[in-house]
Amino acid sequence: MDDRESIWSVAWRARNLYFSLFIIQYLAGVVLLIYQEALRNRSDSVTETLIAIWQGSAPIAITSAANSLFITELGRMLMVLADSLEKYLERRRERRLAEATAKGRTEVYQMWETWNEQRIAAEAEGKEPPPPPSLDDTDEA
């Protein structure tokens, strides 16, 4: 279930992560705001301090929401990129294996072709034909 209503809505699968990030960021921002307003601006009255904290919490909420959405979507995007990279590497591995197999077949064919030419030449001269090649001979060639 990955339905969204807009670009700003959170995907269903990412909601737990989103809300966890949002709460952590929002609480950290409010704590810093309270520290700034209550402890550093001691000349203000209690009412002015509470109003300043209340007014400052709205931008913190918006910023926390945007940051949380960005982080969750970045994580999802990285997963999509990782999947794409994995598929690309698998196709590349398969292509290299096919190329190596074709090259190996060509080398074995050439090895047998060379042996057959030597065998025919030896039989024409009345000599003993060379032994047939084995797959172990491919490492020496």
How would you sum up this structure, described in words?
The chain is mainly α and 141 residues long. The chain has one domain. The protein has two helices and no strands. The protein has helices at residues 15-40, 46-125. Helix 1 (15-40) packs antiparallel against helix 2. The two termini are 58 Å apart. The model has no long low-confidence stretch (mean pLDDT 85).
The helix/strand series, from N terminus to C terminus, equals: HH
Number of helices: 2
- Strand content range: under 5%
Give the count of structural domains.
1
> Structural class per helix/strand content?
mainly alpha
Mean of all residue-level pLDDT scores:
85
Number of strands: 0
Main sheet attributes: strand count, strand direction, barrel closure: none
Q: Classify the helix fraction into a percent range.
A: over 70%
What is the end-to-end distance?
Answer: 58 Å
| Rg over C-alpha atoms, rounded to the nearest angstrom | 36 Å
Uncertain spans: none
Note the overall shape: rod-shaped
In short:
Helix content is 75%, strand content 0%. The chain has two helices and no strands. The mean pLDDT is 85.
What is this structure's SSE topology?
Blueprint: H1 15-40, H2 46-125
Helix pairs in contact: 1-2
Summary keywords:
141 residues; mainly alpha; 0% strand
